[in-house]
Specification:
Blueprint lengths: L13 E5 H8 L25 E7 L33 E3 L2
Parallel strand pairs: 1-2
Antiparallel strand pairs: 2-3
């Protein structure tokens, strides 16, 4: 499947992902994401609904203990309440 030649100027589609993952992707420390499904899928199977989306940074389940030590500095120190006023969506993804 070809990659879109132009990035969209706006989007209302987002995938909730760890803030640390968004940072790693934007800084080139990580080049892809592999998802098997989410916690709340009814059938426990991941269904692709959109091929393009922005990453929605979140801290749910984010834990330093689940990261390699060299990536601990990327962990978000931000509580969920801090996202209420402003959320920066800066990582655009496309499934290929």
């Amino acid at each position: 499947m070809p990659i879109s030649p132009k990035l969209p100027t706006s989007s209302n589609i987002g995938l909730k992902e760890w803030t640390v993952t968004s940072k790693a992707l934007s800084q080139g420390e990580q080049i892809f994401m592999l998802r098997k499904g989410g916690i709340r899928e009814d059938s426990r199977h991941f269904k692709i609904e959109h091929r393009q989306f922005l990453l929605y940074p979140g801290v749910f389940h984010e834990a330093t203990s689940l990261l390699k030590p060299k990536y601990h500095s990327l962990i978000s120190g931000t509580a969920n309440e801090d996202f209420i006023k402003k959320i920066t969506l800066s990582v655009f993804c496309e499934l290929i």
